[in-house]
Design a protein that fits this description.
The complex is a heterodimer of chains A (359) and B (394). By secondary structure, chain A is mainly alpha-helical. Chain A has a domain of 225 residues: MetI-like fold. Chain A is built from 14 helices and no strands. In chain A, helix 6 packs antiparallel against helix 7. The longest helix of chain A has 30 residues. Chain A is globular and about 90 Å long. The relative contact order of chain A is 0.09. With 394 residues, chain B is an alpha+beta fold. Among the domains of chain B are: 201 residues, Orthogonal Bundle (MetI-like fold), CATH 1.10.3720.10; 66 residues. Chain B has a 4-stranded antiparallel β-sheet. In chain B, strands 4-5 form a two-stranded antiparallel ribbon. In chain B, helix 5 packs antiparallel against helix 6. Classes of the chains: A mainly alpha (359), B alpha+beta (394). At the A-B interface, helix 2, helix 7, helix 8, helix 12 and helix 14 of A face helix 1, helix 3, helix 4, helix 10 and helix 11 of B.
Chain lengths: 359, 394
């Protein structure tokens, strides 16, 4: 009987592996491709090395202004003004309060993950914003009051974004439900509001909130600048959330609506228990997308005179001891925004991939 | 056994869904009307108390401030607030249209680059998209204006290209075309060329439907479009000349000056919006199933025919709606020009005019009305395109 032995697998031909092969197929497969690659290499050559040199290798990281000898970025400016970029004019001895709020936020998120009881979750969710507000603004429990004019920097940016996201969410859902409802008057009102807000730029809504809104109320009712901006941003964001949620509602099969009615659930029971959980789940990627736009749009509050982190660049540069550091300021703020937005968009993509179970 | 009985009161007024719907709608309507009434009431009280005049008569008053860029005749001394409104509106439209053109070109290039077989080009496009779409547009505008353009040299040390284009911290100077008598003929010849191309397209399509023969449409059309006006230009004795900008003393004379505010705004808006357009282009082309390309190849079609007859018609259906939406976004984002003082609608009207006149309600409503009109026009356009492109079922 013949015996068969397994032959050793031969290595791949030397022409079809290795870095040379990869370069050949991906970068220099034909003349056109090679030209494009050369253009690409040139683009990298003219941008990346100077940028790295400026940002890292030639940069000044410590010392005083007089000691700056390198041509690169002078990060000493950011280090010197770091507190202003983060807290604005918030009194220095009270910085522990926003810090505590940041720590509490992490604790809050962990608690939401850990807690099993829905009721305690809801109580926590309702209580938490007030705790944060009291901690930051003070005036209660012997905490020193800090006026909103002194809030600024990254703290203000995050605060505006967070309030905009949280407050606009319920309004947006109600608007979306109103737009989808069978009641003509209600539907018209909701469509009118949504389309109006989506049709105009945010800056006009902020102007409206800061200039026209005070005229709508009695003299006794005072709004401070921050509250006006928050109202404008919340209403603006609500219209966009409404459209995202409507997309989710429309994607739910009609059978789900009919089934919830057949079970004898009331409108709100059906919505809260059956339709909305599904609709919100599939709209998470788009919701995150809309949060990213809101986060980027918070920069607009500087036009109506609030001092968010972007406004801090101009403001810190008006210090006569520190003139001409705009570039460093803008790059620093850019990095902060970029990291936040990029992380959020990667998160939304990962969720999209997780939900995308079709083949 | 559960003896609990369901209450039998299903005959109440509100248990009828139709009655209930009417009831709730009336309540909602009353609430909205009451709110509006309350706000309006307070508003009139406040306006009276503060002595603000109402109405649109302020539009006839003389504005009396200078504007750095005007497309119509505007005079500091005699022009009214209505003229200011028109100047702002035109400047908004100018920056939007230019921005849309640049953003489309850049977005198309990057979107195609994103799908390139070339590893380097595809990754560079990805880096471009991910970098610029994650930076707030206002930050980009301020960066271009306060950092890049502010660092440009003074007029005397301008960067110059071929001695006809100059770039300095007062803006970009390009030669200004001067149309002398006879240049009308060139315009007419161009219009005739466009009409000819239009009919040629129809004829070649008909011929293609009948006989299947291809006509080199793009080459012939380009030739007609370029040759006809050029020929007329020389026949009419070269009636178009250009005035080149010249350095006189500390500043330039002649030529078209593009102010730095407009440059910064155009750079920022086009670069930012192009990232979204690129993503739309990529998504659209990727949405065409692979089988379509393979089938076209199996039929023996050439590469450019596959692109123009199989891939693009299907991809455009997916690409165009989000791109038109981005055009609208760009137009709305152009209002951020107010941060760097480019004289567009929001800067001139909701800014300077509001500060001088103080009639906040009328002015902001007018500004909003302009943007609303633009978005309604664009969404009508979008609906029309969607209807035209919808797959025609049998």
């Amino acid at each position: 009987m013949a015996t068969y032995t397994m032959k050793e697998a031969k290595p791949a031909p030397s022409g079809s592996k290795g870095i040379i092969f990869w370069l050949k197929t991906n970068l220099f497969s034909d003349v056109r491709n090679s030209l494009l690659s050369l253009v690409g290499i040139y683009l990298i050559y003219v941008t990346i090395p100077p940028l790295l040199n400026w940002m890292i290798f030639d940069a000044t990281w410590s010392g005083t202004q007089d000691e700056v000898v390198n041509s690169g970025a002078r990060w000493i400016f950011i280090i010197e003004k770091f507190d202003q970029f983060i807290y604005g004019f918030y009194p220095e001895h009270l910085h522990w309060r926003p810090n505590l709020v940041a720590v509490l936020c992490v604790a809050f998120l962990i608690a939401l993950k850990v807690l099993k009881n829905n009721k305690s979750k809801i109580v926590l969710m309702l209580l938490f914003p007030f705790v944060c507000f009291i901690l930051i603004s003070g005036g209660w429990f012997g905490l020193e009051t800090v006026e909103t004019e002194k809030w600024g920097g990254l703290m203000l940016t995050i605060l505006v974004a967070a309030v905009g996201i949280i407050a606009s969410f319920p309004i947006g859902i109600v608007l979306a439900l109103g737009r989808q409802s069978d009641m003509p008057i209600l539907r018209t009102l909701c469509i009118g509001f949504i389309e109006f807000v989506r049709g105009v730029p945010l800056i006009t809504i902020l102007f409206m909130a800061s200039v026209v809104l005070p005229l709508f109320f009695h003299d006794g009712i005072e709004f401070d600048k921050l509250l006006r901006a928050l109202i404008g941003i919340t209403l603006f964001q609500a219209a966009y959330i409404a459209e995202v949620v409507r997309g989710g509602l429309q994607a739910i099969p009609k059978g789900q609506y009919e089934a919830s009615e057949a079970l004898g659930l009331s409108y709100w029971q059906g919505m809260i228990l059956i339709i909305l959980p599904q609709a919100l789940k599939i709209s998470i990627p788009n919701l995150v997308g809309s949060f990213i736009s809101l986060f980027k749009d918070t920069t607009l509050v500087l036009i109506i005179g609030l001092f968010d982190i972007l406004a801090m660049v101009t403001l810190t540069n008006s210090d006569t001891n520190w003139l001409g550091y705009e570039v460093e300021g803008y790059v620093f703020v850019t990095l902060i925004y970029w990291v936040c937005c990029f992380t959020m968009s990667q998160y939304s993509k990962s969720i999209e991939r997780k939900f995308n179970t079709e083949h | 056994m559960n003896n609990k009985q369901l209450p039998i009161d299903g005959k109440g007024f509100l248990n009828n869904p139709q009655h209930r719907a009417v009831f709730f709608q009336i309540i909602a309507l009353i609430a909205v009307i009451l709110c509006a009434f309350y706000f309006a009431n307070n508003m009139f009280d406040n306006i009276e108390k503060r002595g603000i005049t109402t109405g649109f008569s302020f539009l006839d008053n003389t504005a009396g401030f200078g504007i750095s860029q005007t497309l119509t005749d505007y005079d500091d001394g005699t022009s009214t607030y209505f003229d200011v409104f028109i100047v702002g509106l035109l400047n908004t439209l100018l920056v939007s249209i230019l921005g849309i053109i640049f953003a489309s070109i850049l977005g198309l290039l990057v979107g195609i680059g994103r799908l390139s077989n070339n590893f380097l080009i595809s990754k560079l496009s990805l880096i471009y998209i991910e970098t610029f779409r994650n930076i707030p547009i206002l930050l980009q505008i301020l960066f271009w204006y306060n950092v890049v353009l502010a660092a440009l040299p003074s007029p005397r040390q301008s960067m110059s290209y071929l001695d006809s284009v100059f770039l300095n911290n007062r803006g970009l100077l390009i030669p200004e075309p001067i149309f002398e008598s006879g240049s009308g003929a060139i315009l007419i010849s161009f219009i005739i060329a466009v009409t000819a191309v239009f009919y040629l397209t129809r004829w070649s399509r008909k011929r293609h439907d009948k006989t299947g023969e291809e006509f080199p449409l793009i080459k012939v059309s380009l030739a007609i479009l370029i040759l006809a006006p050029t020929l007329v230009y020389f026949i009419a004795g070269q009636p178009i000349s250009a005035v080149y900008p010249e350095l006189k003393g500390f500043n330039f004379r002649g030529g078209l000056a593009i102010i730095p505010e407009l440059l910064a705004l155009l750079f920022a808006l086009s670069i930012y919006t192009a990232t979204y357009i690129a993503e739309a282009v990529r998504a659209g082309i990727e949405a065409v199933p692979k089988g379509q390309k393979e089938a076209a190849k199996a039929l023996g079609l050439k590469d450019h025919v596959i692109l123009s007859k199989v891939v693009l018609p299907q991809a455009l259906r997916v690409i165009i709606p989000p791109v038109i939406n981005q055009f609208l976004n760009l137009t709305k984002n152009s209002s951020l020009a107010t941060a760097i003082g480019y004289p567009e609608l929001v800067t001139l009207f909701s800014g300077t005019t509001l500060n001088q006149v103080g009639q906040a309600i009328e002015i902001i409503l007018m500004t909003m009305a302009v943007y609303l009109t633009i978005s309604i026009v664009i969404s009508l356009l979008l609906n029309w395109v969607n209807a035209k492109m919808a797959i025609k079922g049998r």
